[in-house]
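Chain A, query sequence.
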Amino acid sequence: MAADEKVQAKGEQAEGKVKKVVGGAVGNESLRAEGRAEETKGDLREAKKKVKDAIKPQ
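Chain A, predicted structure.
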């Protein structure tokens, strides 16, 4: 499960970055905004995973 979350977060970040760059290149602000949102979603998922790992008993 933990590896799944990490992979999903990295996938969202990568997909968001691609959409953001492509949207900027073609002048599509809607696609660019969608990319920023998806990238942020991945960042938040990754942060959540780090917090869970930090408070997990050793």
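The two ends are 18 Å apart (CA to CA). The first helix runs from residue 2 to 26.
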